[in-house]
UniProtKB/TrEMBL annotation:
Identification of the protein by name: Tetratricopeptide repeat protein
Keyword hit for Repeat: yes
InterPro entries: CellSynth/LPSAsmb/PSIAsmb, TPR-like_helical_dom_sf, TPR_rpt
UniProt keywords, alphabetically: Repeat, TPR repeat
Xref: SUPFAM superfamilies: TPR-like
Gene3D superfamilies listed in its UniProt record: Tetratricopeptide repeat domain (1.25.40.10)
PROSITE patterns, alphabetized: TPR (PS50005)
Swiss-Prot/TrEMBL TPR repeat ranges: 23-56
């Protein structure tokens, strides 16, 4: 190459404008992935968009919709509430999105409140027909105080369940116990709360008391899946292997319909070292339902690791860390 030609070539190279992605670029990529139902990828793009332009409420609203699609309704609601607070109610669509999420959670009074707020502010808005349909489905009759009371009670129970679930999934035993004690007083016939109470009691250090209470529940219903899972773990942890074998054998013959119950058995098998059996149960789960459970990632990755696939175990754990930020600072479960 001649010297002049070389100089011209360098000049052309130096005139290349570097591509610097903007929030709009990330947003467009996120929407594209969302339309293809690639929600994990969409969430990554939207996170980048929000990081690039944290004051853009449109990006945050789209992120909330992704969380709604993946069943993370509380995360979605937190984002939408923040948008309303930061924009002074300018993004009215947030009211309908909140109503929809609360309806999915079963919190019907809250769903009604936000649907009505949306229609008050945007009677002919994009979601007006959806909001009206939602109100028709809720079918709350304000003229009947008794019905309202029953609905309020239902909503209160669901709030307790959601909060207790959060504390149990994060091994916050004392916080779970305090709420469960209130819950049992208010809803004494809600049997699962009693089983969750003994579980939290055991791992808070009150082992003998937990076993005694669970045995009382077992006498009332010897077919209870929750008694079998709790007692299997309790006896395994305390070294009473003969008693453990009795309850674990019962679980090996139970194949529930509900995903949360399927997960409970899978986790119990993993907790007690039956990794081959646990792996079979984990493979049978509907991931779309259980991915909101930290215990799914913790014990599935543990199971895979003990079956001799450390790289796959790490991949599952890292996915859990991406979905549940509280996991990120923690050690991988097989080293903790």
């Amino acid at each position: 190459m001649q010297p002049v030609e070389k100089k011209n070539k360098l000049a052309q190279t130096n005139n290349v404008i570097p591509f610097i992605p903007t929030g709009d670029f990330y947003f467009a990529k996120g929407v594209e992935s969302f339309r293809k139902r690639k929600f994990d990828i969409a969430l990554k793009w939207l996170t980048k968009a929000v990081d690039a332009a944290p004051d853009n409420p449109l990006y945050q609203c789209q992120m909330s919709i992704i969380y709604t699609e993946t069943g993370s309704f509380h995360k979605a609601n937190q984002i939408l509430t923040n948008v309303l607070q930061s924009t002074g109610d300018q993004y009215v669509d947030c009211y309908y999105l909140l109503a929809n999420n609360y309806a999915h959670l079963g919190l019907l009074n809250d769903a009604k409140k936000f649907a009505v707020s949306y229609l008050d502010k945007e009677p002919d808005g994009d979601f007006s027909e959806d909001a009206k349909a939602l109100l028709q489905l809720i079918e709350i009759d304000d003229d009947f105080d008794e019905d309202e009371w029953e609905l309020d009670e239902e909503d209160e129970l669901l709030v307790y369940q959601e909060t207790v679930f959060h504390h149990l999934e994060n091994n916050e035993w004392d916080k779970a116990l305090a709420l469960l004690e209130e819950m049992i007083l208010l809803f004494p016939d809600h049997k699962i709360a009693h089983h969750e109470y003994t579980f939290a009691l055991f791992f808070s250090g009150r082992r003998e008391e937990a076993i005694e209470k669970e045995l009382e529940l077992f006498k009332e219903d010897s077919n209870s899946l929750y008694s079998h899972t709790n007692l299997a773990v309790f006896y395994y942890e305390t070294g009473y292997m003969e008693e453990y074998e009795k309850h674990i054998r019962a679980l090996l013959n139970i194949y529930p319909m509900h995903e949360q119950q399927k997960l409970r058995i899978a986790v119990t098998l993993a907790r007690t070292g039956l990794y081959n059996e646990a792996f079979t149960r984990f493979r049978m789960l509907d991931k779309a339902v259980v991915k909101s459970h930290i215990s799914y990632y913790r014990w599935y990755s543990m199971t895979i690791y003990h079956l001799g696939e450390p790289s796959k175990a790490l991949s599952i754990w890292e996915e859990g860390c991406r979905r549940h930020q509280r996991l990120s600072p923690q050690e991988v479960p097989w080293e903790s």
